[in-house]
Amino acid sequence: MNRLPALLAVPCLALLLAGPAAGQSMHSLELLRGEEVGINPRYLLQDPNGRAVTQEEFRGRFQLIAFGYTYCPDICPTTLVEMAEILKLLGDKAAKLQPIFISVDPERDTGKVLKTYTEFFDPRILGLTGSPALVRRAADNFKIRYAKVREPDTPPDRYAVDHSAGMILLGPDGNFIKKFAFSMPVTEISAQIGDLLNQR
Family, per the entry (predicted)? Predict the structure, then answer.
């Protein structure tokens, strides 16, 4: 994973300077209500140590969830930079929030790879993965779209994954609260989450 600093530094800086509109493909830009999108915030996945984890693991805390993959060139590193910044802005209140990054590339994102990747941004971010079937079920529950994109005549392990962007907030009861669009400023996301944390 020595590729991380070199691969992430340029796209992170470029996207943060260019604004969140850069690099979008099928990425959702709207802030959605749960009843509008039918999000069912349930997952059964594995942490980097192979231990089974569900949304019930964090009952009593808010969960801030993003889907992506470690080979993502732009959207995912930008999202995790923003997630780390949100934790920083929340200060001590961040203890009430569990940040989670769910891989949509389980074939390449092993637990070890995912752990190294998330800790590069902030050690509090938990990476989750699982079998392709479990990852697909979690993504479907959260209304996250993803699909492999492979150029012709490339090796089987050389592909990108086009996927929905944004961050999803669950409450301390595990229920869906809202989805933050990829275009939303970090300060606004942090302020909204902070207001909710103050009510606890």
Answer: Belongs to the SCO1/2 family.
